[in-house]
Amino acid sequence: MSLARESLAEADIALAPRASQSNELRVVSAPAKRRRGRPRKDGSGTTDQAAAILDAAITLFMKQGYQATTMSQIAEASGYSQSSLYYWYKKKEDLLESIVEKTGFSLRTASRIANLPDDKLTQLYAVLYADTLMMCKLPCDFYDLEDVAHTQEDTLSGFFTTYQQLTGAVRQIIEEGIESGEFIKIDAATAALDALAVNEGLQHRYHSTVRFPSSTCSMVEEEARTIFRSAEDVAHHAATITIEYLAPGCVPAKVRQQAIDNNWI
What we know:
Radius of gyration: 19 Å
Largest sheet: 2 strands, antiparallel
Order of helices and strands: EEHHHHHHHHHHH
InterPro entries: Homeodomain-like_sf, HTH-type_TetR-like_transc_reg, HTH_TetR, Tet_transcr_reg_TetR-rel_C_sf
Strand content: under 5%
Strand order of the largest sheet: 1-2
Number of domains: 2
Helix content: 55-70%
Shape: globular
Protein name: Transcriptional regulator
Number of helices: 11
Domain HTH tetR-type: 47-107
Number of strands: 2
Region (Disordered): 24-47
Structural class: mainly alpha
Keywords: DNA-binding, Transcription, Transcription regulation
Distance between the termini: 9 Å
């Protein structure tokens, strides 16, 4: 199974010190069990309920704050009964934990490939692709999620830890790519920051396009809208921007195919 299609709840990741100068990523927990969707009152329920409930919760957390938001308000905003809400999330803290867990998908991808010795170009493409794809498939804009995390830093400290670890993994790949001659000489820390910022900006545009598909006030020119046809198209475009900058002359289509052949995306 390709990495991009694996469950976002597969495992948690930690950074373990390497014997040398960089950090090695490893998986430290077993796969989580996946729950079946509880049927709606009309019997048509699906696992999309969990995503809809999470989206409603994030919207309310942003609008009125975490403490002021009740479980009954979340149920009403999501359009589901309280019994359906409690089937998926027993308490508000469970919603926050689910938010943090989903954002770890990019880091889990990095953990599989960042310590392999060769082909840093394809490794970087795969990690950036997975990062953008994860954000595009979240039930909300990543920027909105970051805002909620800042209001609940004690509960959502893992959100920031995961992001820092992902940044470190991207920096590690870039550093090793510079050493191998695959990438131009550049400050790796700044390049990692820039790469993730590109991903975040494009996922924001994707979510905006999805939310307002018929808007006449789109900030995306007609000629560029093909980029946003799917989350996968956005992910490819985001990863392409960075690898073309760091490895002038590379052929993104070939890099993408290599990532697919390696089962990295």
